[in-house]
Amino acid sequence: EKQNRFLKGECFRCGDKYEHGHLCKTDTLKVLEDNEDVEEPLTTDLTNLEYDPEETAEISLHAILGKPHPTTMKVHGMLHSTEVLILIYGGSTHNFISDVLVNELKLAT
């Protein structure tokens, strides 16, 4: 059905004519639920991570520009005693942190 709508120039979700800037009249609600009760904060020791200088990093343009992407999840976390916003995007192969935050928290690099 999606293929037929695409060939007719229709939106595959709502069936209306598709054009630049189209917004579906039918909204969708996406819910992410936690199915476990976590009684204590999750902590990870990052001091003994292995580093491979030959590995090539891949990052999306959305991540570089700080733009939202439909597959990006935003969660709140704590780094030492500072609340941080964590963006989780499956399209990147590496993790990045703001230079400002590193300097502010005096983190080792």
Characterise the protein shown here:
The chain has 109 residues and is α+β, with helices and mostly antiparallel strands. It has two domains: 1-33, no CATH class; 41-109, no CATH class. It has three helices and two strands, in the order H-H-E-E-H. The chain has a two-stranded antiparallel sheet. The model has no long low-confidence stretch (mean pLDDT 76).
Alpha-beta classification: alpha+beta
Q: Give helix % range.
A: 10-25%
| First-residue to last-residue Cα separation | 51 Å
Computed CA radius of gyration, to the nearest angstrom? 20 Å
Count of DSSP H/I helices: 3
- Percent of sequence in beta strands: 5-15%
Biggest β-sheet strands, sense, barrel: 2 strands, antiparallel
Low-confidence segments: none
- Shape assignment: elongated
Order of helices and strands: HHEEH
Short descriptors:
single chain, 109 residues, alpha+beta, 2 domains, two-stranded antiparallel sheet, 3 helices, 13% strand, elongated
Secondary-structure topology with pairs:
Blueprint: H1 2-7, H2 61-65, E1 73-79, E2 82-88, H3 99-105
Antiparallel strand pairs: 1-2
Give the gist of this structure.
The chain is 17% helix and 13% strand.
